[in-house]
Amino acid sequence: MTGTEQITAERQRQIDKEGVSVLHDVRAYRMEELMWAAICYAEHGDNPQYLDGAIPPDWPWANEWWKPSPDHSKNLVKAGALIAADLDRRAHLEDHPHEQI
Description:
0% strand; mainly alpha; 5 helices
């Protein structure tokens, strides 16, 4: 699969398996959490310290949601899917500004 296909598949997995959606993201995130999570996977996903259980200091969510893979390419795919989720959230808010709290 291409990188784009991998990111698309991961985003769909997040929706199907993690139970998130654009509406979930609109309601749950207002402080750039999706972007910061993506940055953590991209920046720290190949750091042995963070693969061995340490949590990045800028991780925006509960510790149990930090799930890096030993395969850094998979962490980059997670990062891409989280960026896609944030873009979807922003596009939804542009189309539905009344939903922003």
